[in-house]
Specification:
By secondary structure, the protein is of the alpha/beta class. It has helices at residues 13-20, 28-42, 44-52, 73-76, 108-123, 136-139, 145-157, 169-181, 192-201, 226-237, and strands at 69-70, 88-91, 102-105, 130-134, 163-165, 186-191, 209-214, 242-246, 255-257, 263-264, 269-274, 282-283, 289-295, 304-313, 318-324. The strands form 2 sheets. Strands 1, 4, 5, 6, 7, 8, 9, 10, 11, 12, 13, 14 and 15 form a 13-stranded mixed beta sheet that branches. A two-stranded antiparallel ribbon has the order 2-3. β8 and β9 (255-257) form a beta hairpin. α1 (13-20) packs antiparallel against α2, α2 packs across α3 (44-52) and α9 (192-201) runs parallel beside α10 (226-237). The radius of gyration is 20 Å and the shape is globular. The chain starts with 12 loop residues before the first helix and ends in a 15-residue tail after the last strand.
C-alpha cells in the first residue's frame, strides 16, 4: 500500500485521498508536500495566501517550506479545496460578538473514517465500551463537529446505556452507578465545565470508567491548569487517570492525551512548532512556541493550519499544549495553561 504513495509528485484527489490513512513516518513528508501542491492549485484562499507570502511553490519539497494558513481564515473565508459539493458545514462555538469558524466538509465518509480510526487507535473500538457524553453547551447549538463525532461513536458502541447528557446530572450519576455495579467498561467524555458541575454535586468511585475531558470553561468560570483540573476530577471520581481530547472545528482528526500526559497524534496528523515572533520559522522539539498542525484528512479544506495555541512537540510525534497566545479569542478546544 505504501508504494502507491511514493514516487513522483501526484496532485490527483483520488490518489491523494487513498494515501491519507496509508501514511507512515517514512511517507508523511512526501504525501504532505503533494497535498500542498494540490491545495495550492485548487484552493483559491490558500493560493492567494501563499502568493502574498511570495512562496516559490515549485521549490517546496519539505514541511519546513510549506506555509501554514492562520486558523482565523476559517472565520472570514470559505476555505475549500476543489469543486466537490459541500456536504456539511461545522461551526465553532463562540461567545456573543465573536466570529465563529466554519469548516466546509465535502467528504463526510472521510471525516467518519478519520475520527473512528483515531478513537480505535487510542481508546479501543467503541463497540467494546458504553459511551456517555456530557456535552451541554455543544448540544444547544447546530453545527458542532464534536456532537456529530460522538453521535456516530455512540451508534457504533451499540450499548443501550450509551447516550448524551445535558443538564440531567442525576440521570448520569445513576447510570454510572449501574454501569460500575455491573463492571461494564465505560467511557465518560465531557466538556470541562460540565464535568466540574457534575463533581460539585456528586462523588463516585469509578473503577471501570475512563474519563476524557474536552474543551474549556466556555466563559462559565475561571480556567484551570490541566494539572489542577485533572487532580479535581480524579479525586472526586475516584479514578487515577483523566484523559484529554484535542480537536477543533477546523480539523477532521483528533489527538488524545494518554498515560504519559502527552497528546498522541495518528500517523496522518503532525504537530510542528513555530516561533511566536517569526510565524514563518519552525523551531525544534522541546521548545515552546505556537502550534502548527498538519492534518492530511483536511484534503478538501486546508491541511496546514497555524493555530493560536502554544505548546511543545517531541520526537515521538507527541506534543503538549501550554495555553493560548495573548491576543487570541478564548475557544473550546483544550486551551488551559499548564502549571
Amino acid at each position: 500500500m505504501l508504494m502507491k504513495c511514493s514516487g513522483s509528485k501526484m496532485t490527483d484527489r483520488t490518489h491523494l485521498r487513498s494515501c491519507v490513512f496509508d501514511t507512515d513516518k517514512s511517507t508523511f513528508t512526501k504525501v504532505a508536500v503533494d497535498l500542498f501542491h494540490y491545495q495550492y492549485q485548487h484552493n483559491p484562499v490558500y493560493r492567494e495566501y501563499c502568493s502574498l507570502l511570495k512562496t516559490d511553490t515549485s521549490a517546496v519539497t519539505s514541511i519546513e517550506q510549506i506555509p501554514f494558513l492562520p486558523i482565523d481564515f476559517f472565520k472570514t473565508h470559505r476555505v475549500v479545496t476543489g469543486t466537490l459539493p459541500v456536504q456539511k458545514i461545522f461551526s465553532s462555538s463562540g461567545t456573543t460578538g465573536q466570529q465563529i469558524s466554519r469548516h466546509h466538509v465535502c467528504d463526510l465518509p472521510l471525516y467518519n473514517e478519520s475520527f473512528s480510526k483515531c478513537f480505535n487507535m487510542f481508546l479501543g473500538p467503541p463497540e467494546d465500551s458504553c459511551l456517555l457524553a456530557l456535552l451541554p453547551s455543544y448540544l444547544e447549538r447546530e453545527g458542532s463537529s464534536l456532537v456529530y463525532m460522538v453521535r456516530q461513536l455512540i451508534e457504533k458502541s451499540g450499548a443501550p446505556e450509551s447516550g448524551f447528557y445535558r443538564y440531567n446530572l442525576n440521570d448520569l450519576y445513576r447510570q454510572l452507578l449501574q454501569l460500575e455495579e455491573n463492571q461494564k467498561q465505560t467511557i465518560l467524555l465531557g466538556v470541562t465545565f460540565g464535568l466540574l458541575e457534575f463533581i460539585a454535586a456528586y462523588h463516585i468511585t469509578l473503577r471501570h470508567t475512563r474519563v476524557i475531558e474536552t474543551g474549556g470553561m466556555k466563559g462559565r468560570g475561571e480556567e484551570l491548569t490541566r494539572e489542577s483540573l485533572h487532580h479535581k476530577l480524579s479525586t472526586a471520581l475516584g479514578t487515577e487517570r483523566i484523559y484529554s481530547e484535542y480537536g477543533m472545528t477546523e480539523l477532521l482528526s483528533q489527538a488524545y492525551m494518554l498515560d504519559d500526559r502527552k497528546f498522541h497524534t495518528p500517523p496522518w496528523m503532525k504537530v510542528v512548532i513555530r516561533d511566536v515572533n517569526d510565524p514563518l520559522q519552525l523551531i525544534g522539539h522541546g521548545k515552546t512556541g505556537a502550534i502548527n498542525i498538519i492534518d492530511l484528512a483536511n484534503i478538501d479544506s486546508c491541511c496546514f493550519i497555524a493555530t493560536a495555541d502554544l505548546g511543545k512537540s517531541f520526537p515521538d510525534n507527541t506534543f503538549e499544549t501550554l495555553g493560548r497566545m495573548d491576543d487570541s479569542d478564548v475557544r473550546g478546544c483544550n486551551l488551559m495553561w499548564e502549571a
